[in-house]
# Entry
Amino acid sequence: MPLINTNLTRMDNKMIKLITAISTGCLLLIQAGCISTPTYKEKVKAYRPDLSGRYLGGHPGAAANSDTSRNSGNTQTDVVKADTPPPKAIMLKRGDKITIYIYGSGSVPGIVDVIDDNGSVNLPYIGFTKIGGLTTYAAEKHIEKSYIDGGFYKQIQVSVVKQFEGEYFVQGEVNNKQGVFSLSGDTTLLEAIAKAGGPTVYAGLKKVKLMRDDKVSIYNVKKMQSGDEKPPLIRPGDVIYIPKSPW
# Structure
């Protein structure tokens, strides 16, 4: 038993010496600066997303066609090409009288034409070109493209002007306003009333008056709305009167 105790004591002494040596070594390394808590002095740059291809409004393809110019600093200026029609543009339709001016093709005067039943106009070199259902802006771009794609011109500018065709008047029970309205193309009695905001809930639609020159005609707009009667076309100077219902 004394021999076993002596051996344990020797082993304990060796372990203590080993632990002491390791502790001393670590302390020296810390003092020498080999082991230290890392510190980051370099600042992290702020994330700035690339906005050069962002949609900036107008036509969806305008961002892709934008001209980009850089200033002396880091500011980037995006100049988007004007590629959108003006707001509240009027659609062209059959019967509309228009004048088409073609610039860049020599001394060609304005072409006066009427949009036919197919929505087309007859133009020099390219023949019948459909513009019905387009705005004047879209019609201009379509005609320009037709001339350029056909190889007739390299650079051309087209202006489409819708001619003024007269006025008509709406009085009585309408929602938006009474007064004068511009007449363009084929406009029916129903369309004329709709442009004034439509009839009010108090309107007497069975006896709507249409005054033309010295003649007064009575129309049942109720039957026109249901499709039982065909609405008449409005002419310049017509006066539409919608009375109040008697009940």
